[in-house]
Design goal:
Elements lengths: L1 H15 L1 H6 L2 E3 L6 E3 H6 L15 H8 L6 E2 L18 H12 L5 E8 L2 E8 L10 H17 L3 E4 L11 H4 L1 H14 L4 E5 L6 H9 L2 E4 L4 E2 L23 E2 H6 L5 E2 L5 H13 L26
Parallel strand pairs: 5-6, 6-7, 7-8, 8-11
Antiparallel strand pairs: 1-2, 3-4, 4-5, 9-10
The structure holds zinc ion (ZN).
Length: 309
C-alpha cells in the first residue's frame, strides 16, 4: 500500500493541483494587455514588468514580501469558518468554504502571521482575496481581533493589508457585527501606544477595510489600489479588465491621497523598506542624532539716536 500513498497519491495531487498548472501559464496584464510568464510575474511580486500595474498578491506571498526570511510563522485562528445560518444559494455555503480552502490553501479570507520586519517584531494580518473574493465574514473578524490581541501581547506594531471585495453575505448579521469588534480591538492598541499601519492593497471594498484605514496611524497605499463600496459580484476575478472598470463611489490610491485618506503611495517592491523606516521612526520618537541645547543670546537693544529729519 505504501507505493499508493507515497507515490500515486502525491503524483495525482500534483497533476490536479491548480497551482502547478498556473506555474506554466502566461498572464495578461489587465492594464496594458502585455503578457508575462506566470513565474516571472510572481518573481517580480506580481508587478507588471511592462507598465508597473500591481496585480493582486496572495497573503502567503505578502508575508514573504514583508517579513524577514525564516523569521515568521502563521497563527491559528480561533473559530475557523463555519456556516451559522445554513446558507444555500446555487451551492451550500459550507461546500463553498471547503472548495475555497482546497483551491486557495488558506482557511479563511484573513491570514495572520507574526515575525520580524527588518529585525524588529511585528504582527501582520493580510486579506486573501482569492478566498471567496476576500469577503469579510465572522471568521475574518475573529482573525483581525486575534491579530490585534497578539500585537498587544507581544508589544509589537500591527500591519494590516487590505484585499476584499465586500462583506460575506452568507454570514449575515454575524459579518456585520465584526466592524465594531475589530474597531475596539484596534483602540486597545492605540491606548498602549502601539502603532497600527494600514497597507491599502487592491481591492478594499468592504466596510471593515474602510474602518481599518481610518483607524490606522499611518496608511501606505500601493499604486492603483482601490477603496470603495462592494462590487456587484463579490466573487469575481479581481484582475479581469471588466473588474477594473470605474464604478461610482470607488476611488483609487491617488484620489485617496488627495483626499487625505492615504499618507503615501509606495511601490510594492519598496513596501518593506518603507514600513521598516516608518516603524523605526514611530519606535524611537527621540532623534538619534546629537541634540544641542538651545540657549538664545540675550537681546541687546540699541537706542535709536539718529535725529529726526
Ligand atoms: Zn501591464
Amino acid at each position: 500500500m505504501s507505493w499508493l500513498t507515497n507515490f500515486v497519491g502525491p503524483t495525482l495531487k500534483r497533476w490536479i493541483s491548480p497551482r502547478v498548472i498556473r506555474e506554466h501559464q502566461w498572464v495578461t496584464c489587465p492594464q496594458c494587455g502585455a503578457t508575462s510568464f506566470y513565474r516571472d510575474l510572481d518573481a517580480n511580486w506580481r508587478v507588471c514588468p511592462h507598465c508597473d500595474h500591481h496585480l493582486t498578491l496572495t497573503a502567503a506571498r505578502r508575508f514573504e514580501l514583508l517579513l524577514d526570511a525564516e523569521s515568521w510563522a502563521r497563527i491559528e485562528i480561533p473559530g475557523a469558518a463555519t456556516d451559522p445560518l445554513k446558507f444555500r444559494d446555487a451551492k451550500r455555503y459550507g461546500e463553498r468554504l471547503k472548495d475555497a480552502a482546497a483551491t486557495v490553501g488558506e482557511a479563511e479570507s484573513v491570514v495572520v502571521a507574526h515575525g520580524k520586519l527588518d529585525g524588529a517584531g511585528v504582527v501582520v494580518a493580510a486579506f486573501e482575496v482569492q478566498f471567496l473574493g476576500g469577503t469579510f465574514g465572522a471568521a475574518a473578524g475573529e482573525a483581525l481581533v486575534a491579530a490585534a490581541e497578539l500585537a498587544a501581547l507581544q508589544d509589537a506594531p500591527l500591519v494590516l493589508v487590505t484585499g476584499s471585495q465586500g462583506t460575506r453575505v452568507q454570514d449575515g448579521a454575524f459579518a456585520l457585527v465584526q466592524t465594531p469588534r475589530v474597531g475596539l480591538a484596534l483602540r486597545k492598541l492605540a491606548e498602549r501606544s502601539l502603532p497600527v499601519i494600514g497597507v491599502l492593497a487592491d481591492p478594499a471594498f468592504d466596510p471593515v477595510s474602510d474602518m481599518l484605514m481610518q483607524q490606522a496611524d499611518i496608511v501606505l497605499a500601493e499604486p492603483g489600489a482601490r477603496l470603495g463600496p462592494p462590487a456587484a459580484d463579490p466573487f469575481g476575478e479581481t484582475d479581469t479588465p471588466a473588474f477594473l472598470a470605474p464604478r461610482a463611489g470607488v476611488i483609487d490610491a491617488r484620489a485617496a491621497l488627495a483626499a487625505g485618506r492615504v499618507d503615501r503611495i509606495v511601490d510594492r517592491r519598496d513596501m518593506k523598506a518603507e514600513l521598516a523606516a516608518t516603524l523605526g521612526v514611530l519606535r524611537s520618537p527621540v532623534p538619534s542624532g546629537l541634540v544641542l541645547p538651545y540657549s538664545p543670546k540675550p537681546m541687546i537693544i540699541v537706542a535709536d539716536t539718529t535725529p529726526d529729519a
